[in-house]
Specification:
- The complex is a heterodimer of chains A (106) and B (120).
- Chain A is mostly beta strands.
- Helices cover 0% and strands 50% of the residues of chain A.
- Chain A has no helices and eleven strands.
- In chain A, a hairpin with a 3-residue loop joins β5 and β6.
- Chain B is mainly β and 120 residues long.
- In chain B, strands 2, 4, 5, 6, 9, 10 and 11 form a seven-stranded mixed sheet that branches. Chain B has a four-stranded antiparallel sheet with strand order 1-3-8-7, with no helix packed on it.
- Classes of the chains: A mainly beta (106), B mainly beta (120).
- Chains A and B meet through β5 and β10 of A and β5 and β10 of B.
Amino acid sequence: DIQMTQSPSTLSASVGDRVTISCRASQSISSWLAWYQQKPGKAPKLLIYQASSLESGVPSRFSGSGSGTEFTLTISSLQPDDFATYYCQQYNTYFTFGPGTKVDIK
Amino acid sequence: QITLKESGPTLVKPTQTLTLTCSFSGFSLSTATVGVGWIRQPPGKALEWLALIYWDDHESYSPSLRDRLTITGDTSKNQVVLTMTNMDPVDTATYYCARYSSSSLVFHSWGLGILVSISS
């Protein structure tokens, strides 16, 4: 099984901050990685796939990078709508989600 | 516009079988590259993928739950059904269905989810 880890588990930030979330796979997954945003009581929303491809309609302040086992989600300038939990997901072998990173207000 | 909606029981007794239905619109399961998957999320915990059915009726299951899961599709009704046997309180979760694309290999659109509690 491919295990996914994320850091930090919680991140406190202010509007306008540059935010970086890390995701690590237990083995190489090439670029088969997606990022989802989830708000309380809501379904996850796809932000990024294939490590760096922006889903249609997602603001350009979101970007993804990485390959192999190390990946990063960056929000260039945090907006009020961005306070949420973010999950990475590998799809190299089946599908596995990371434990999530909660971005809350500092 | 693509929409998905999960339906089924919200309370199930231990050892019983859970049957959930995903009703969708805005796409067809008979279209090449389309699939529908199920993902669950226990309260306060992370997401867990369960199963996926492809446009060609190919099925894929989580290795850890394979023995308990069955996914079927009905293209005429635009529905996908997930059955999960031998339910246990640890299976209490919000169950989501989502549209999958075999072009991008990810879940693009999700339903709102249904909270299923397992309790006697």
